[in-house]
Design a protein that fits this description.
binds 3-isopropylmalic acid, single chain, binds manganese (II) ion, two-stranded antiparallel sheet, ten-stranded mixed beta sheet, Isopropylmalate Dehydrogenase, 367 residues, globular, alpha/beta
Length: 367
């Protein structure tokens, strides 16, 4: 198979973790005899520095014609005080919208080998295995009107939380279909005791649930969800929620996994005529400028995103399983970066990438 992939390393540690993810991609391609065609584009702070805008047209065109896009991270401190349209983050929102990737799948699991990496009690996190389905192209992130106007005592800022019925329906379908292949439980998160937006969300999700009789649905308010995530994380299977709530809850979920560096994500939209998902794959973590360039960042979120890319955009489930297996091997061997607080000397970013490749080639030798 020819794997045509666009790389957008972005800013900060995005560059380092993408480099390791590419090593793994090459290893998979050679072990499973696929042809790899990689192109590279600019997104985020680096794009502003080189072209003046966070999401150049050239990047848009590349992303639209490539089978799948692998992204590092965006964000640079030098743009902290810039207006929203001149910020690196706007590039990320732009590409999500341009590709129409409305469902962001963020699996959160507690690996046995990392049980001591989480600050939470072992018996609490042990066995956690959930997937957060975050709506990604609507809500407060994109709603208009938005902006800051006026001055002095008249100065005001507005954002708009807006969802249409079809936007809720399509992401709800995604969540129920995923749940059907897992433990058959969807928990929908909202704030329907206060927000009309959430009232519509709850009503539409309930309607869609009726079409999936083998999946159970429960609803939880977002504040309670934040608490239950750390009180009884095993109660969750598929967590379905809107954009902003999902952004916040998934960082909390990272604590269950041991480190945010562990979390991969797949953002998918509609299927292409070939049956493959349009997809954008990125680790959940940010650009972490404080450790950028130090070969310290955890590349496993990015490498896990490679596995998701193989699975969703190319239907290569065996290859994806091999990558997940290699990650687990490396964790069991204790070859992990400092964020996971290993008992021995922490490994560097590139050492972890190499270890995953070694585990993959051992797997290929057996297979
Ligand atoms: C994420 C990030 C982004 C988001 C930022 C960088 C715009 O926090 O992917 O979770 O808020 O979606
Ligand atoms: Mn986030």
């Amino acid at each position: 198979m020819n794997l045509n992939i666009l790389l957008l390393p972005g800013d900060g540690i995005g560059v380092e973790v993408t480099r390791e993810a590419v090593k793994v991609l090459r290893q998979v391609a050679s072990a499973f005899k696929h042809e790899l065609t990689l192109s590279e584009g600019l997104l985020g702070g680096i794009a502003i520095q080189k072209t003046g805008v966070p999401f150049p047209d050239e990047t848009r065109e590349l992303a639209l014609k490539t089978d799948a896009t692998l992204l590092g991270a965006v964000g640079l401190p030098e743009f902290d005080n810039a207006p929203p349209e001149k910020r690196p983050e706007r590039g990320l929102l732009g590409i999500r919208k341009a590709l129409g990737v409305y469902a962001n799948l963020r699996p959160v699991r507690s690996y046995k080998a990392l049980i001591n990496s989480s600050p939470l009690k072992n018996e609490l996190v042990d066995g956690t295995d959930m997937i957060i389905v975050r709506e990604l192209t609507g809500g407060l992130y994109y709603g208009t009107p938005r902006g800051i106007s006026g001055s002095g005592a008249e100065e005001r800022a507005v954002n708009t939380m807006i969802y249409t019925r079809p936007e809720i329906e399509r992401v709800a379908h995604m969540a129920f279909q995923l749940a059907g292949k897992r433990r058959k439980k969807v928990t929908s998160v909202d704030k329907s005791n206060v927000l009309e937006n959430s009232q519509l969300w709850r009503r539409v999700v309930t309607e869609i649930a009726a079409r999936y009789p083998d999946v159970t649905l429960d609803h939880i308010l977002v504040d309670n969800c934040a608490m239950q995530l750390v009180l009884q994380p095993r109660r969750f299977d598929v967590v379905l929620t809107e954009n902003m709530f999902g952004d916040i809850l998934s960082d909390e979920g990272a604590v269950l996994a041991g480190s945010i560096g562990m979390l991969p994500s797949a953002s998918i939209g509609d299927k292409r005529p070939s049956g493959a998902w349009v997809g954008l794959y990125e680790p959940v973590h940010g650009s972490a400028p404080d450790i950028a360039g130090k070969n310290k960042a955890n590349p496993l979120g990015a490498i896990g995103s490679v596995a998701a890319l193989l699975e969703y955009s190319f239907g290569l489930t065996e290859e994806a399983r091999a990558v997940y297996g290699a990650i687990e091997n490396v964790l069991n061997a204790g070859r992990v970066t400092a964020d996971l607080k290993p008992a021995g000397t922490p490994a560097s970013t590139s050492e972890v990438g190499d270890a995953v490749c070694e585990a993959l080639s051992a797997h290929a030798a057996i297979a």
